[in-house]
Amino acid sequence: MIQKSKRVEAFGTTIFHEINLLAAEYGAVNLGQGKPDFDGPEPVIEGAVAALRDSAHNQYADGRGLEALRIAIAQHEDSFYARQLDPDQEIIVTVGATEAIFAAILGLTDPGDEIIVFEPFYDSYVPNILMAGGIPRYCPLHPPAWDFDPDQLRSLFNAKTRAIVVNTPHNPSGKVFSPDELALIAELCLGHDVTIITDEVYEHIVFDEAVHTSMAQIPGVQDRTLRISSLGKTFNVTGWKIGWATGPAELVAGVQRARQFMSFAVAHPLQVGAVQALQLPASYYEALAAMYQAKRDRLVNALQQANLKPATPAGSYFVMADFSAVYEDDDKAFAQWLIREAGVASIPPTVFYSPPNQHIVSKQARFAFCKSDATLDEAAARLQALGQRI
Ligand code: PMP
Ligand code: GLN
After folding, report:
1. Domain 42-281: which topology?
2. CB of 362 within 8 A of CB of 330?
3. Ligand 1 neighbourhood includes 122 CB (under 6 angstroms)
4. How far apart are CA 240 and CA 158, in angstroms?
5. Contacts of 28 (CB under 8 A, 6+ apart)
6. Start-end of CATH 3.40.640.10 domains in the chain
7. Fewest CB atoms within 10 Å of the CB: 145, 205, 311, 369?
8. Chain-wide mean pLDDT for the chain?
9. Is the beta carbon of 33 within 6 A of some atom in ligand 2?
10. pTM of this prediction?
11. In this predicted model, what pLDDT tens digit does every residue of 288-301 receive, in sequence order?
12. What distance in Å separates the CA atoms of residue 171 and residue 30, rounded to the nearest whole number?
C-alpha cells in the first residue's frame, strides 16, 4: 500500500484552504485568509509586465536573488533600520517569507534541537520545525494585551535551545512587541547562545502611536539575528511570493545552503517588479499604514456593532474578536456557523496554538481587513443582519 511519510502524516490541510472552500460554497464575504482584494501599485505591476515581455527575464535568475533586488533590499534596510548590509553576503531572496522561514530552520538548526515559538504562531512554523526534526517549545501570548510571562519564556531556554522565532508585528494578534520585550528575548538568546529568526512581514503596517522595532535593531544580538520579510503585505502582491532574509553572512549562508535545493531561484520577472516596489518613496509607506488604519477602524466598528468584542490591533491586518456574547460553542464551530448563518468567513485561531494552550482563544475568531471598503461594508451589513436575527 502506498502511504504518506510519517513526517507529514499529522499535518492535514491548512486552515486557509479549508475556510476558503467553505466560504466559496456559501458565497461568504471572505475575511479569513490575509489576502488583499485590491491590487499592488501600478508601477510595480507594470515593472513585472515589462520584464515578462523582455526575454532576458524569463530564464533562471541568480540563485541568491537578482543583484538589483538585493541592492534595493540593502537600501530598504538602511533607510528603515540603519543597517548597512553587503548585498552579496548578507541578503538572500526567497520564495516568500514562508520559504525563508523554512530554509532558516533547516539551514540553522539540527534534528533534536529545541526551537522556541510564541503562540499563537503563524501556521507554517511548527510543521517546518517538525519536518526539520526539531522540537518546538511554546511560549503563549495572553489576551487582551497579548503579553507573555517573562519567567515562562526564561524557563524554556536550556542547553538544547538552538533558535527562537519572533514575529512582530504579530499575526494573528496584532501585537507589536515592545523594545523591552525584544530586549528580554535578546538577553536570553545571548545568555544561551541562541539564534533569532525574526519574521517581520507586517513591518510597515502599524497604527496610532505603535512603532515597529526590529529584533535586528536590538543591541548585542545583530550577529545572531536573521531578519525575514517579504513583498506581499507591504505592496499588496501576496501572490508574487517574493521574500528575503537578511543578517550576518554566516546565517545567510546557512539559509542559502538549504534553499538552493528547495527552489534554486525565485521568479525572475517578479523580482524586477520587486525592485520597482522598493524604489517607491517614503510617502508610499505612510499612505499604506494610513489606509490600513482606516480599514482597521471600519472593521473594529462593524465587529463592535455585532457584539463580537474586537481587540484593537496595534499592527498587522488582522483583528481578534471574542464571540462569547453571541455564540456558545468553540472557535471552529463558530467559524463554520458564521459562514453559514451570516455569510462572513473568519479563521478559528486555536489552530495557531499547541493543544494544551488552545483554550486561550477557544472563544475568539480572527478577521482580516486587507479588503476593499466595499467588502468590509458588505461584511458589516451581513453581521448586523445576523445580529438582528439572533
Ligand atoms: N509570516 C507571517 C506572520 C505571515 O502572516 C505570512 C503571511 N502569509 C507569512 C509569514 C508568509 O509570507 P509570504 O507570503 O511572503 O510567504
Ligand atoms: N498570512 C496569511 C494569513 O495568515 C496567508 C497565509 C497563507 O495563505 N498561508 O492569513
Report:
1. Aspartate Aminotransferase; domain 2 (3.40.640)
2. yes
3. yes
4. 39
5. 22, 339, 342, 343, 344, 345
6. 42-281
7. 145
8. 97
9. yes
10. 0.97
11. 999 999 999 999 99
12. 17
Region 230-252: mean pLDDT is 98
Q: Is 16 in the pocket of ligand 2 (CB under 6 A)?
A: yes
Residue 52 has pLDDT above 90, yes or no: yes
151-201 per-position pLDDT tens digit: 999 999 999 999 999 999 999 999 999 999 999 999 999 999 999 999 999
Q: Tell the residue nearest (CA) to atom 12 of ligand 1.
A: 97
Q: Where in the chain are all domains bearing CATH 3.90.1150.10? A: 6-39+283-389
Q: Compute the distance between CA of residue 214 and CA of residue 205 in angstroms, rounded to an integer.
A: 13
CA-wise closest residue to 97 among 223, 202, 207, 236? 202
CA 174/CA 205 separation, integer angstroms: 10
Please work out whether the CB of residue 217 comes within 6 Å of at least one atom of ligand 2. Answer: no
Which ligand is nearest the CA of 36, by number? 2
**Confidence at residue 387, expressed as pLDDT on a 0 to 100 scale:** 80
The residues that bridge with 116 in the sheet, in sequence order, are: 137, 164
CATH for 6-39+283-389 is 3.90.1150.10
